[in-house]
Amino acid sequence: MKHHSIQLACAAMAATLAALPAFSHAGVRVCTFPGSPSTALDHSVAKAVFKTAGLDVSFVREAIGEGDDDGVSPKELHKVLAKHCDVIAGFPRSSVADGSDSKLRFSASYLRSGYVSVGLRDRRAQSDAPDIVAATYASPAQLIAVQQRDVELDLENTSESTVDAVANGRARRAIVWYPALVAYRGKHPQTRFVTASTRSAYADWSLVFAFAPEAAPLQKRIDRAIATMSADGRLATLTKDWALPADEKTAQTTPAYLDGPSRGAADAHIVRVDASTTADPAFSQAQVAHGKTLYASSCAKCHGPDLQGITAPALRGPSFAPASAKAHPIGAIFQYMASNMPADKPGKMRDQDYADIMAFLLHSNGYGASTAKLTADAARASTTPLAARTAQ
Ligand code: HEC
């Protein structure tokens, strides 16, 4: 598990970092993630950007370890930035994952890229392959793939073997981060692929430089260099092989969770109601406690132990439950959750368990418990808008 679990780990990171040492004659020390498909790009962009900023760079190898099965831990990155590097190049960020309370500083993005659906150009080879979708284990690709209906999954350990599953006919399609496909093509120029975007909020990632919190002056200088190179076209030239092809068609693979309450066009399906005409649904303290346990075992790994959002959106505070004009009815959120969550086993929990989790979500967003019990039917029928009543 290399690059992709690193993405998950990084997104979750909230590290406190030691002060940056003064730059030595070796210049600014740049680290990249081991095994990342974008390393070649990260190096060439770092060289050019730091040169534009008037700084020398040296690349530090092996500073970031391979990590264990859960990827590189925040603690390890903390150590790396304190000891071995001044900046981490090729740090992946996503709009969904940025809900985490990371204390790192980030530059502007130098590459925006997404997860794509990949097949073989040769149609005959494609139709011979079993109707299986390959994805990299514990990565955003897996989250996107599990939402697709009526497909069998082939979970692979690396992004390279995920592309390979399509190239060698183990799967008909694969969901991969586009730079992984670019890296694969570099090694296997004879294989012809077709790509299509996966329309998921979760598919959209950017590569940035990450700095320790104290490195504000360095980060500003790098941002100016990125802006300069973006204006004069040099950045586009450097990244052109890695950027998503512009003429790409949208795949018919829209994940079910795009129908969720919080994202764009999906909002149109949800009826808004006037807060003044509705009452809070009642729920008990015992349900909150039980819901909390269920949340910890089935939801926290994606939404965060404190509901703060990691690889999935926050489930407390105004980003989840905005003030009433924009709020979604509790019933809509309940129905969405009960049919789409947990994303790795959608709809598989008991109705009453979903109701208990709803009680926990309400309580976490500042609603008070009573002695009455919240049933799944009552939750489903509630037109009360969920609007956070806590500061967080
Ligand atoms: C494997 C990861 C994963 C797990 C586990 C998971 N979720 Fe999610 N959840 C997601 C993702 C990703 C989204 C965002 C979908 C989107 O809007 O694009 C989401 C969205 C949601 C939303 C809608 C939030 C919003 O603002 O759009 C709710 C509510 C939710 N999840 C509740 C839960 C609950 C409750 C559980 C546990 C029973 C759970 N989720 C488990 C990944 C997960």
From TrEMBL:
SMART domains hit by this protein: PBPb
TM segment ranges: none
Ranges where the Cytochrome c domain occurs: 286-365
A Pfam family annotated for this UniProt entry: Cytochrome_CBB3
Signal peptide: 1-26
Single GO MF annotation: electron transfer activity
InterPro entries, A to Z: Cyt_c-like_dom, Cyt_c-like_dom_sf, Solute-binding_3/MltF_N
UniProt keyword annotations, A-Z: Heme, Iron, Metal-binding, Signal
Name recorded for this polypeptide: Cytochrome c, class I
